[in-house]
Records
---
Amino acid sequence: MTYKLINDNCFDWMKNREENSITAIVTDPPYGVKEYTEEELKKKRNASGGIWRIPPAFDGRKRSPLPRFSVINDSPLERDNVYNFFIDWGRLAFKVLVPGGHIFIASTPLLSDIVSRALRDAGLERRGEIVRVVKTFRGGDRPKGAEKEFSMTTVIPRGCWEPWGLYRKPLSERTVAKNLKRWKAGALHRKSIDTPFCDLIESGKTPQCERKISNHPSLKPQDFMRILVSAALPLQEGIILDPFCGGGSTIAAAEALGFNSIGVEQDKDFYQMAKNAVPKLSQLYPQSEKLLFEEG
Ligand SMILES: C[S@@+](CC[C@H](N)C(=O)[O-])C[C@H]1O[C@@H](n2cnc3c(N)ncnc32)[C@H](O)[C@@H]1O
């Protein structure tokens, strides 16, 4: 086994972690900060309101609950909470990453600007944004209570993509090549010798067979996560950290590709879920390593 799962608050864990000891962070945090608090999870588990809501079944299919980020977006106080959470987190990420280490961090178009400002203020370099093409079922609704009157309007666009911010801890060496030699970090792994890593990735919903293994509400698909973890280790060596590891999709992807990884999850139920799921998710699609490097 090349991975470790830890049931802890990642802020505490990162505070105690050695400096310059993680090669890359690939993570999907609680975007709006509060949707994964004990209070909101309790409401979700009891199906008693709160930030989680069932998206409209416009095609007649039952949907799983999603957090409502538009609630957060409206209030300056909530925006400050998001900023403060991510600047504190960014400073810890800065500490544990090796110089040149990358962060891939999932977000939402409603909040990614705040996360970006916070991570830059924490000292990290913004290196771009990955567009994961996927229908998120967020947005696209008509004005509440006036759906017929304004039947040809939509309040915000229906989400068809998910932004993943790309950040890097500044290099300690004068050139990328020297940094790669010293820290095995500073660049991204290419898709193939002829094709660099690209920032637009066609993706889909997480397949049912993966959801059956790990029933986390934000489980990411293995095909997408395997592309990210591979890109995050330029020399295919080092340690991947997912400090918000949820149902374990990042750690399973790292394990499938034979990389060392560490996952931290504060919720006991999700931690247990990841413990059970990682060995099974990582064994799915045994050909994917070959495909990742041969497709180009
Ligand atoms: C968006 S989910 C991640 C889902 C994951 N990518 C997957 O595929 O299952 C965020 C996770 O972070 C956890 N979390 C929230 N705050 C945390 C903290 N301070 N430390 C560790 N885990 C935390 C939540 O319990 C939740 O499971």
Note: The CA atoms of residues 1 and 101 lie 23 Å apart.
---
Amino acid sequence: MEGTRIRRLEERDIDAAIALTDLEAWGYTREDFQRLLALSPDGCFAAERYGRVVGVLTTTTYDDLAFLGAVIVAPELRGKGVGKEMMEAALAHLRATGVRTVQLNAYLNAIPFYERLGFHREYEVIRWHGLAKAGERVRGIRPVRAEDLTGLARMDAKYFGANRQKLLARLAKEFPSTFLVAENRGRLRGFIVGNPSGASCEIGPWVVEPGSRRVATDLYRALIDSAGASQVALSGPSQNGALLEFVSESRFKEVFRALRMWWGANEFPGDPAGLWAVGGLEKG
Ligand SMILES: CC(C)(COP(=O)(O)OP(=O)(O)OC[C@H]1O[C@@H](n2cnc3c(N)ncnc32)[C@H](O)[C@@H]1OP(=O)(O)O)[C@@H](O)C(=O)NCCC(=O)NCCS
């Protein structure tokens, strides 16, 4: 759109980015945008019009896979091509840096927008809110240690689809007492990360070897204990049957659904049977 410029999102744009995402009640905080900028400083974009930020989009790259999210345009400028321009700038940047696959979690209303840009449908990701019963101490679960990260990232890559070690390292620093791992006879079976805020706790990433439902629930109970949370929120793949049983037994409430979509070469499908919660709808 004439008069609109797509440029890098900078630290000084964070207030404007939060003001935009608050219009959709997405709940992004300063820390969330700082984390996204730290993970991919060149991969986050703003649309600027006469000195005002009117659009935002972030990307997070893991190996040759990038996750794209927080796509928003100011309400009065929607439908005028700004979203498409931001997406094309981001996809061109990612392609130029060697990314072969781009994934995202689309709000259902935005699916046609992404399909027009060449994205394909994959599976639904469901957002839940729930009440947590008081946690219990569980054996075999402990806080993450720096020396776990390489092994955890290798295990995680089987299910996520690419190596997220830089994200895991950042989360281990930010949440040392609510990033928990399950270790059994010297083998890492899974991990969970909680981002507590008051009485509530955002859960994810939460990754567990398929067939280990007990490990997944032990991680959850230990997290509730460490975080002291009474409310939880998480988003997980509809294709993980054990997760669906867990949320139903826990009486969590479905809040909305998003659709996982991919673009480029679908080279990093991962295995959603091991994914219990995404690390954030915007960064996979
Ligand atoms: C989704 C959003 C980012 C799209 O940005 P935009 O600037 O309004 O979209 P554009 O004007 O660039 O549209 C590009 C194309 O997609 C189409 N399109 C955009 N939104 C659409 C929708 N909801 N349904 C169908 N088509 C849509 C446009 O018609 C246009 O088609 P064309 O290229 O054939 O002309 C914007 O509408 C928005 O901020 N929505 C609210 C937040 C949101 O839901 N974000 C997505 C999170 S996953």
Note: The chain has a mean pLDDT of 97.
